[in-house]
Amino acid sequence: MSSCTHTPDTPAVFPPLASDRPTRAAAIRSALDDAAALINTQHAQVLSAVIAMKEQGLHRSEFGFSALRDLLLSQFDFTFNTAGSIAAIARLSGKFRLLAKAATTGTARIDQVAYAVRQLDQTPAMRLFARTPFRAPAPSPFDPAVLCATPEAMVAQYCAHASFRELRRHLDELWASIAEETELFDELGEQSLQRLELTPQGNGMWALEGTLSDTTGRLLDKYLKTACPPPRQEDTEADGGGEGLLPAQANRNAEALHQLLAGYGASPQAATRHGHTATLDLTVDIETLQGKDTGRLPLLEGQPISVARARLLACEGAVIPSVFNYATGEAVELGRALRLPNAALRRKLELEQPDGCAWHGCDRPVAWAEAHHIQHWADGGPTAAENLILLCRFHHGRIHTPGWTIEKTGPGQAIITHHDGHEGQSGNDSEGCGCSDWRTDTDMDTENQGSDWDVFPTGLYRSEWSEGMKADLDGMAEIIDRDRAFQAMRAAKARCREKFATPPPSPVPVLGCPSGRLLGEAPPHQAAQPDPRGTGPLSMP
C-alpha cells in the first residue's frame, strides 16, 4: 500500500457564496457533476487496467494474488466497495462483455454494473438467458433509437440511464420472466441424464435399471400407484411383523408394469412397426399345440419354446398366435377374435368375479386377471362365459403346470384342485376325484406354509422352484430369512427392554396428620365451645 503523503492546499473549487440560494445550489451541482464525471472516468480507467491485468494473468504472476479484490485492497488505496465492484466486473468481463464495455467507457457507473453482473451470474440459466438474442431487437426505454439485441444490452441501458432502484426492479422482472425458462433448461439437463437399460440375464429374467427425468418418473409413479394402490394401514399391520396381507409393493409394481406394456401393446394407439403393435409372435401348428407328439416345437419370436409354455402364452392378450395346419400349410382360423373374450364378455366375467383372481386368498385386482379357458381353445374349447374363469397371471401360469384342474361351479365360482400324478376328473365334482391326493388350492397353500410359501409375495411353493432358477431363489430366500431374523431379534430386544426396564423411583412418602387436617384446624364435626372464663369461643390447644 502506498504511504500517506501531505496534500498541499488547493484553491477552493466552489465560487464565492452568492447572495441568493438558487445560484449557490447551481454552483454546487455543477461542481459535483464535474467531480462525479471525473471519478467515474478514473474508475473506468482503473477497470480497464484491471481487466487487462486479469486477462494476461499478471495479478497472479507479478503481484501474487489470485483474488482481484484482495489485490486492490492490499496494494492500492481503494475503498472496500470500490475494489469489490471493480473486481466483480473484471472477473465477469468475459461473460458480460456489453456491461463491461459500458463500465470501461464510462457510460455507466461501476457500482450499478457490478450489481448487474453479480445478479446475472447467479445461475447458469440466467447467464444463458442474458446472452440469448431477442426474437426481434427491443428498443431502449430511454432512447427508442437504440435497439437492444439481448437482455444484457437492455440491462446495460438501465445501468447507464436508470436509477439503482429502477435497475434492481428490471433485474427482478428478468428473474420472474425466466422462471419458466429455468425449468425448461432443467428439463433439458434431466433428459440428457436419463437412461434406461434392459439387459437379459442368464437365468431367463431381465434386469431393468435406469434414471428417469422428473416428468417421466412422476408419470410412471402415478401409473403404478393408480394400477396398484399402496396397502391399507390395517393390512400392513395385520400380522404384526410389518409384512402385511398384500404382496410386496415392489412385486406389485413389476406386475403393474407388465399390465401397462401388455395393455398398451394391444391398443390401436400403440406404436407399430410394419403394421403390428408391440406384441409377441407365437408360431405353432395346431397338432403340436394340442399336445400331440409331433416332434416339432413352437417358436416365440423365432426361438423354440415348450408346448406347455406355448399353450399358456396362447391365452395372453400380448401374444399373437400364428396357428397353422402342418400338413397343408394353411392358417387355422383360431385368431384373436375367437380365443380372447370381447369387451362385452370380458365385462360379464368381471361382474361375475368382482374380487378378481379365482385363487383363494389372491388379491390381485380384477383388471389384471386373464381369461383362462377351462377347456383350452386349441382343444376346441369355446370362448364363452361357461368355459372361462379369471385368474391372475401367476396363478394362471400355475394352473398350466402338471397336476392342476379347475372346475367352474357357477358364475365367477370355481374349484381348483391338485392331483399328484394325474390331471383329475372332468365335471363339477365338489367332493373331489376320489383319489387320496386330491387337494384344493387352500389345502395346498396351507400345506406349503412351512416350506417357504410366504417367502415370496406370489406364494411360490418350494416344489415349484425350477432348476434354472433355484440358485437365484435360494439367494433371495436367504436374504429374506436373514432380514426376518434381524427383525425378530430387534423385536425380542425391545420386549426384553420393556420387561426388565427399571421402574421409576416411587415418590418419598410425606408423613402428615392421620386425619388429613391442617395444623391447628378443628375437626369438622366438633363445634367451637364457649370459653367458661369469658364470652368468646374456647380456644383449642
TrEMBL record:
<feature type="domain" description="HNH nuclease">
    <location>
        <begin position="346"/>
        <end position="397"/>
    </location>
</feature>
<feature type="region of interest" description="Disordered">
    <location>
        <begin position="497"/>
        <end position="541"/>
    </location>
</feature>
<dbReference type="InterPro" id="IPR003615">
    <property type="entry name" value="HNH_nuc"/>
</dbReference>
<protein>
    <submittedName>
        <fullName>DUF222 domain-containing protein</fullName>
    </submittedName>
</protein>
<dbReference type="GO" id="GO:0004519">
    <property type="term" value="F:endonuclease activity"/>
</dbReference>
<dbReference type="GO" id="GO:0003676">
    <property type="term" value="F:nucleic acid binding"/>
</dbReference>
<dbReference type="GO" id="GO:0008270">
    <property type="term" value="F:zinc ion binding"/>
</dbReference>
<dbReference type="InterPro" id="IPR003870">
    <property type="entry name" value="DUF222"/>
</dbReference>
<dbReference type="Pfam" id="PF02720">
    <property type="entry name" value="DUF222"/>
</dbReference>
<comment type="similarity">
    <text>Belongs to the Rv1128c/1148c/1588c/1702c/1945/3466 family.</text>
</comment>
<dbReference type="Pfam" id="PF01844">
    <property type="entry name" value="HNH"/>
</dbReference>
<dbReference type="InterPro" id="IPR002711">
    <property type="entry name" value="HNH"/>
</dbReference>
